[in-house]
């Protein structure tokens, strides 16, 4: 049965696209359910980060071709909604790519803040090979992730990146040796580093990083950061942590 599985790993929501017989190709229903799972994680105050993966053997083989072939603009946008929900997610996100990430599946991987992969991962734009123009913002996301030359090689010339090549290109943050379970465990452990950070501070900082990414001037970035930084200095979380640090220093004196 095709479904989106959601599992809590302490402060991390693990979201799995599960339709292994069809290599986790995104249907309208799966995309809608994926968007709902992301929204649920955002609304859960105990969730600090989200990891998205796909049931082996693939990460996500793209959009279901039948659904894609029948889609008009509204249908295309509905298919996009799952990975766009990940891209819009206000929480930190990690993609654990343990197989092929093709077309819209590449978009799903690109939508995450950080990507982990195991040696079975393959990153394949493939749109042009199917006679389809790229969609869902792939050209924008890919060029920002790897630069225009590597993005052109993948999009226009059909270059497929292995996990190692993707790491070298900056598309993947870390390659994890081992099977899918080891990959997911590594991604969840990485995401769990957010557990001790105040949730609102994570959300605000991610929002600021999105804003400063398009800023050219250092001074403008300073101005963008100063308002939320002042707010954090006035927060009870900072006051408690400062008091704990001061108590430790006093105790060691």
From TrEMBL:
Superkingdom: Bacteria
Pfam families: ECH_1 (PF00378)
Enzyme Commission numbers on file: 4.2.1.17
Membrane-spanning ranges: none
A Gene Ontology molecular function term of the record: enoyl-CoA hydratase activity
Gene3D superfamilies per UniProt: 2-enoyl-CoA Hydratase, Chain A, domain 1
Signal peptide region: none
Keywords: Lyase
EC class (word): lyase
Family: Belongs to the enoyl-CoA hydratase/isomerase family.
Protein name listed in UniProt: Enoyl-CoA hydratase
């Amino acid at each position: 049965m095709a479904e989106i599985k959601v599992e809590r790993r302490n402060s991390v929501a693990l979201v799995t696209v599960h339709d292994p017989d069809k290599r986790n190709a995104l249907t309208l229903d799966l995309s809608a359910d994926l968007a709902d799972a992301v929204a649920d994680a955002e609304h859960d105050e105990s969730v600090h980060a989200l990891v998205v993966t796909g049931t082996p053997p693939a990460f996500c083989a793209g959009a279901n071709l039948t659904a894609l072939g029948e889609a008009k603009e509204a249908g295309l946008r509905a298919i996009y909604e799952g990975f766009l929900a990940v891209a819009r997610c206000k929480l930190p996100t990690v993609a654990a790519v343990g197989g092929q990430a093709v077309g819209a599946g590449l978009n799903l991987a690109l939508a995450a803040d950080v990507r982990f992969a195991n040696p079975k991962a393959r990153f394949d734009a493939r749109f042009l090979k199917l006679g389809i123009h790229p969609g869902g913002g792939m050209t924008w996301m890919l060029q920002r992730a790897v630069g225009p030359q590597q993005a052109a090689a993948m999009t226009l010339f059909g270059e497929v990146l292995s996990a190692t090549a993707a790491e070298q290109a900056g598309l993947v943050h870390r390659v994890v040796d081992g099977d899918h379970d080891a990959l997911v465990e590594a991604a969840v452990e990485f995401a769990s580093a957010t557990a001790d950070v105040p949730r609102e501070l994570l959300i605000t900082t991610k929002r600021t990083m999105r804003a400063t990414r398009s800023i050219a001037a250092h001074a403008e970035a300073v101005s963008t950061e100063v308002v939320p930084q002042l707010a954090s200095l006035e927060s009870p979380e900072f006051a408690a942590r400062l008091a704990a640090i001061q108590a430790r220093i006093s105790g060691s004196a």
